[in-house]
Specification:
Elements: E1 2-9, H1 13-24, E2 29-32, E3 48-49, H2 61-77, E4 82-92, H3 99-112, E5 122-123, E6 140-151, H4 153-166, E7 170-172, E8 175-183, E9 186-193, E10 196-207, H5 213-218, E11 220-221, E12 229-239, E13 247-251, E14 258-264, E15 267-271, E16 275-277, H6 288-301, E17 315-324, E18 338-341, E19 349-353, H7 360-371
Parallel strand pairs: 1-2, 1-10, 2-7, 4-13, 8-11, 10-19
Antiparallel strand pairs: 3-6, 4-6, 5-6, 8-9, 9-10, 12-15, 12-16, 12-17, 13-14, 14-15, 18-19
The structure holds flavin-adenine dinucleotide (FAD).
Residues 9-15, 32-35, 39-42, 45-48, 176-177, 208-212, 216, 234, 272, 319-321, 352, 355-358 line the site of flavin-adenine dinucleotide (FAD).
Length: 393
């Protein structure tokens, strides 16, 4: 029977990151992915590698600092895949966040980012407003410019898996996790590959199944604690040109939520929404009212989009955030990643709940710290901070 130090379930960005971190640390590892790499949330994000400016408002400074550090790492190691882009925040007479508040926020952002590459910011002078892709200028008081990065989330995920494979990590795909039996030495894992039922041993299983993580955790024996989480749907729509050249960070007129309007593969992408989701994760789909909401937000800022209706939407996708269960609005809930083991000492099964595309590498390193005591000592092969990431096609 095959034996691995670590078996990882789920080939999204977190599974990819843990696979790479295991391989870099010299551990044998297998990733089991049911459909295709990044077939879940990791191809349905806003595709931003960012510190998360808005998390400053909810005091999530650690998250912002970590994300800005990770942005700097990827700007160095993944130049083909992660690029800095100008972000514009238009401030109108009625906009809730005023220019002075944004400047204080951006100063804190630069400070938390160690004043590294891409932390400069300023205002776009009125004389240059005509260069802003037809942005509505009526009642416009100021336009603040700063920098964050954009990626192709699915390509990034594939690049991280390729980096892990180059260090000897293995991939079973398409293959579905079926069950795990925990014992004194680790776990016995059953998974289905094609029509064959396969079995292998793992010292530790890492559950990186994103919105399906609670389903996976339910198939572990003896039963383990499963935290209460909410799934919150986020939809994006893609509309044909006129294309914006920068990324616009706007306030939705109806509820003040932050929405991004950004260039995406020759068209314009608008997102996202936050709708509590109660169904099966496989069933998530953009809702007509979400699409209408996003169109209305974009039309309020770009008069050239005014004629568009839902029939003009060229692309649409919805993903699911995993957030701690709660009664409040999803917008204000903690975005910190939760790592939950079957036990505190020498875990045999560790689940990743939540998290951010941007922080995948940091999350993977935190997973390694948590499972270190369950693993044999191996000779490290590389540092994930230095491993280059390249496009796979
Ligand atoms: C709308 C939205 C926008 C976002 N925008 C951003 C952003 O701009 N920047 C940012 O930093 N973060 C963003 N995020 C967060 C980020 O996208 C997610 O945290 C991240 O993609 C989650 O990755 P994951 O690997 O945990 O899950 P997923 O990508 O969902 O991967 C889970 C994988 O597990 C597989 N799986 C499930 N069950 C099984 C099984 N039984 N056997 C084998 N495999 C299985 C699935 O097929 C899937 O591929 C966004 C999230 C959402 C929802």
């Amino acid at each position: 029977m095959n034996e691995f130090d670590v078996v990882i379930i789920g080939g999204g960005i977190h599974g990819a990151g843990v696979l790479q971190a295991c391989a870099a640390a010299g551990h044998s590892s297998l990733l089991i992915e049911r459909r295709g790499l990044a077939s879940g949330t990791s191809s349905r994000s806003s595709k931003l590698i960012h510190g998360g400016l808005r998390y400053l408002e909810s005091g999530q400074f650690r998250l912002v600092r970590e994300s800005l550090h990770e942005r700097a790492v990827m700007l160095r190691t993944a130049r083909e895949l992660v690029q800095l882009r100008p972000f514009y925040i238009p401030v109108y007479r009625k906009t809730r966040r005023r220019p002075w508040q944004l400047r204080i926020g951006l100063f804190a952002y630069a400070l938390l980012g160690g004043f590294s590459e891409g932390t400069s910011f300023g205002s776009v002078p009125r004389s240059q407003w005509h260069t802003l892709d037809g942005l509505e200028t009526r009642d416009l008081d100021a336009v603040i410019r700063y920098y964050d990065a954009q990626t192709d989330d699915a390509e990034l995920t594939r690049a991280v898996v390729a980096s892990a494979q180059s260090l000897g990590a293995q991939l079973a795909m398409p293959a579905s996790f079926v069950r795990a039996q925990l014992d004194a030495e680790g776990a016995l894992v059953n998974y289905e590959e094609g029509s064959a039922m396969r079995e292998c041993r793992a010292r530790v299983i890492v559950n990186a199944a994103g919105p399906w993580a609670t389903h996976v955790a339910r198939d572990v024996r003896p039963a383990i604690d499963i935290p209460r989480v909410d799934l919150v749907q986020g939809t994006h729509i893609v509309v044909p040109p006129p294309t914006v050249s920068g990324i616009y960070y706007v306030e939705a007129p109806s509820d003040g939520r932050a929405v991004f309007i950004m260039p995406w593969k020759g068209a314009t992408m608008i997102g996202t929404t936050e709708t509590v989701f109660r169904g099966e994760p496989d069933q998530v789909r953009p809702l007509p009212e979400e699409e209408q909401y996003l169109l209305e937000v974009a039309q309020a800022y770009f008069p050239a989009l005014k004629g568009l209706t839902r029939n003009d939407i060229a692309g649409r996708f919805a993903g699911l955030r995993v957030l701690p269960a709660g009664d409040g609005k999803a917008f204000g809930r903690s975005r910190e990643t939760m790592l939950i083991g079957d036990r505190d000492e020498r875990p045999r099964f560790l689940s990743i709940y939540g998290g951010k595309l941007t922080a995948w590498r940091a999350t993977a390193e935190q997973v390694m710290e948590r499972i270190e005591t369950s693993l044999p000592r191996r000779r490290s092969r590389a540092s994930t901070e230095d491993l280059p990431l390249r496009r796979t096609e």
